[in-house]
């Protein structure tokens, strides 16, 4: 009995060491329990990097458009200064007044643009909207510098216009403006648009096209990785769903 008591009797330093070891074991067990039952909340995507880059590029495109609009608005908001000196007097002419249009969608701010119909300018040529530069496009009634730039920018994003009605998809293009130019624009019958290689192009390349949204591209890439190549428009329509834009078929290469 005395031997057992001596065996169970610990010095102060031994008791501290035992308590320290037991405490560490308890802490480790608690930490392990917490980690197992509460895994880090994070979503994983196969194409995170590509999608982030593509979204950033789309955002930059939106910023560039907004910046262009802001510059046009700033020009339109410049009011003629009237000086007391007769030599420095300026009057707003009828022509200048006709260049001011009110845009209700942006709080009735003045925007500088060319009149939709000009009696002094008679169009005598028909412009190919897939080859015309901004200088040529500005000859169209109602198309100023901003609209000409937006038409060219959208053409590059699409891969070219396959229907003249696609001009209605250009930023800020309305039906009245389109009707004023539709008789003066054309698409060459031999034109072939730049196409997406639906079975090999990277996620971010597909996402840049105006007719494809993030979820559409995700379905396409997942399908070709899990089930193989997409062989036809009918198959692509099933993969993407009913919301797919039918004009997208102009821009698809299945090779």
Describe the protein in words:
This protein is mainly alpha-helical and 255 residues long. The chain is 46% helix and 6% strand. The chain has ten helices and six strands; from the N terminus they run H-H-H-H-E-E-E-H-H-H-E-E-H-H-H-E. It has helices at 2-8, 12-37, 48-76, 94-98, 134-137, 145-158, 175-181, 203-207, 214-226, 233-240, and strands spanning 100-103, 109-112, 127-128, 185-186, 196-197, 252-253. The strands form three sheets. Strands 1-2 form a two-stranded antiparallel ribbon. The protein has a two-stranded parallel ribbon with strand order 3-4. A two-stranded parallel sheet has the order 5-6. Strand 1 (100-103) and strand 2 (109-112) form a beta hairpin. The longest helix has 29 residues, at 48-76. The N and C termini lie far apart (90 Å). The model is unreliable at 41-46 and 78-121 (pLDDT under 50).
SSE inventory with pairings:
Elements: H1 2-8, H2 12-37, H3 48-76, H4 94-98, E1 100-103, E2 109-112, E3 127-128, H5 134-137, H6 145-158, H7 175-181, E4 185-186, E5 196-197, H8 203-207, H9 214-226, H10 233-240, E6 252-253
Parallel strand pairs: 3-4, 5-6
Antiparallel strand pairs: 1-2
């Amino acid at each position: 009995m005395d031997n057992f008591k001596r065996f169970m009797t610990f010095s102060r330093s031994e008791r501290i060491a035992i308590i320290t070891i037991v405490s560490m074991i308890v802490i480790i067990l608690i930490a392990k329990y917490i980690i197992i039952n509460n895994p880090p909340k994070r979503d994983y995507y196969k194409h995170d990097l590509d999608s982030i880059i593509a979204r950033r590029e789309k955002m930059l495109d939106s910023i560039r458009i907004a910046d262009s609009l802001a510059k046009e608005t700033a020009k339109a908001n410049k009011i003629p200064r009237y000086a007391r000196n007769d030599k420095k007097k300026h009057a707003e002419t009828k022509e200048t007044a006709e260049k001011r249009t009110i845009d209700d969608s942006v709080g009735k701010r003045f925007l500088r643009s060319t009149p939709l119909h000009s009696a002094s300018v008679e169009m005598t040529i028909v412009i190919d909207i897939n080859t015309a530069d901004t200088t040529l496009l500005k000859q169209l009634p109602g198309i100023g510098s901003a609209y000409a730039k937006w038409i060219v920018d959208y053409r590059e994003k699409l891969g070219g216009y396959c229907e003249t009605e696609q001009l209605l998809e250009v930023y800020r293009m309305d039906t009245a403006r389109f009707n004023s130019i539709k008789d003066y624009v054309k698409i060459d019958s031999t034109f072939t648009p730049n196409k997406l290689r639906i079975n090999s192009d990277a996620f971010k390349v597909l996402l840049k096209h105006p007719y494809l949204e993030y979820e559409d591209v995700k379905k396409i890439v997942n399908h070709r990785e899990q089930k193989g190549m997409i062989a036809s428009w009918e198959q692509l329509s099933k993969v993407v769903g009913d919301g797919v834009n039918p004009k997208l078929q102009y821009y698809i290469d299945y090779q």
